[in-house]
């Protein structure tokens, strides 16, 4: 067991799964090739992704934005990408 790891009563190591939480704006900035926030919202709708929660409200309050699993967004983005010289089937105006 590594230093700082916790164990439960059976001696098993407590392993925490870390999930990157992205807002729509985070995803628009992080995905490559870049997408607009409107395109990210469409991707979320098409892929049927559900928010994992909400980001804590900022200093000015307001409605906190929904957060999504970054890995799920990356996977949905990869599926929707067009192969070289082809089309992916997503229609944009």
Question: Could you give a quick summary of the protein structure above?
Answer:
The chain is built from three helices and three strands; from the N terminus they run E-H-H-E-E-H.
Report on the architecture of this protein.
The structure is a single chain. The protein has about 90 residues and is of the alpha+beta class. It has a domain at about 20-80. The chain is built from 3 helices and 3 strands, in the order E-H-H-E-E-H. The chain has helices at about 25-30, 35-45, 70-80, and strands at about 20, 55, 65-70. Strands 1-3-2 form a 3-stranded antiparallel sheet. Mean pLDDT is about 80; it is low at about 1-5.
Strand residue percentage: 5-15%
Form type: globular
* Proportion of helical residues: 25-40%
Structural class: alpha+beta
- The low-pLDDT segments are 1-5
Q: Report the strand count.
A: 3
Mean pLDDT: 78
Could you describe the largest sheet, including whether it forms a barrel?
Answer: 3 strands, antiparallel
Q: Helix-strand pattern, N to C?
A: EHHEEH
Distance between termini?
Answer: 55 Å
- Spatial sequence of strands, sheet with the most strands: 1-3-2
Tell me the number of helical segments per DSSP (H or I, 4 or more residues long): 3
* CA-based gyration radius: 18 Å
